[in-house]
Specification:
30% helix; globular; 8 strands; alpha/beta; Spore Coat Polysaccharide Biosynthesis Protein SpsA, Chain A; 297 residues
Length: 297
């Protein structure tokens, strides 16, 4: 008989780092920033917002709030490198990730916090439109079969993300073993220790699946919570998705992530070294590893 998983220490009220990833030309950054800062006012303890802006010379906003930090990711660009940079520079043990736009509302993050004390990470499941009636019927029949054969009824599909989303979910589930309903949702809550042996190899949006697949392989417990979702005004065609999937499947890497690469404009080496968690393992890096930098934004 399998042993019950070890109980996780409560962390829902721990200091929080909100990691916002901005694609080139992201609109309404100031509105998004103010919404997140207002939401943080309701949380106890220390908190910060780290905005990682993809592409050089990107226009961002400067706020007087000391919780607001901006990083310009010069190269390499992409969701994966930006997420790795944000995780590396986060100061607090609890990480909330989201795109820097209006796809998700800060108040809906509470749905993730309801589960984090029992697991290592909570991923959102985007709810935008209900599943078609025929898919609901097929899903119901499938759950009846699993109840008869396995004694498990399961949960109905929370939403329908289209045929493209269904095809990707099929591959993610059967090739990488990720069983959540929406493995591509970027709205997540992590214990920072999840990334202790989880370097991110993907350049594009496949990074979101890579994190779940590797966390699952390392024995991390995860939960899923439905969250309202507003599709972005402009869909990004991720040309790296298949290449990243092949790379992670054929040559997955585990171990301590590489320290913050020398790619950061707008960050002083002294700021990196002053971070409480200079690396996931708690070790600091040499100034020449942090790379040259201009004045902090």
């Amino acid at each position: 008989m399998l042993a019950d998983p070890a109980e996780r220490p409560p962390i829902a009220d721990a200091p929080l780092s909100v990691l916002l990833l901005a694609r080139p030309g992201a609109p309404d950054l100031e509105t998004v920033a103010q919404a997140w800062l207002a939401w943080l006012e309701q949380r106890p303890g220390a908190s910060e917002i780290l905005l990682v802006v993809e592409a050089p010379n990107a226009e961002t906003i400067q706020l007087a709030d000391t919780r607001w930090r901006v990083i310009h990711q010069v190269a390499p660009t992409g969701v994966g490198p930006c997420l790795q940079t944000a995780v590396w520079l986060a100061r607090h043990p609890l990480l909330l990730t989201a795109p820097a736009d209006r796809q998700f509302q800060p108040a809906d993050a509470q749905r993730l916090f309801e589960h984090i004390n029992q697991v290592d990470l909570v991923t959102g499941c985007r709810v935008h439109r209900p599943a078609p009636w025929w898919l609901w019927v097929l899903g119901f029949l499938k759950r009846i079969m699993t109840l008869v054969l396995l004694g498990y009824f399961g949960e109905p599909r929370p939403a329908w993300l289209g045929w493209r989303g269904w095809g990707r979910r099929f591959r993610i589930r059967h090739i990488f073993g990720v069983q959540v309903a929406d493995a591509e949702c970027p709205f997540r809550l992590y214990r920072k220790e999840v990334f202790a042996r989880l370097p991110i190899q993907s350049r594009g949006t496949f990074a979101q699946i890579e994190v779940l697949a590797k966390a699952n392989h390392l024995g991390c417990l995860m939960a899923e919570a439905p969250v309202p979702w507003m599709p972005p005004s402009q869909e990004v065609d991720d040309l790296d998705w298949n290449a990243d999937a092949k790379l992670v499947f054929r040559r997955p890497e585990f171990g301590m992530p590489v320290p913050a690469p020398p790619i950061l404009a707008g960050v002083n080496s002294s700021d990196l070294l002053a971070s409480k968690d200079a690396t996931i393992s708690g070790e600091s890096i040499a100034p020449d590893q942090a790379g040259s930098a201009d004045k902090t934004v």
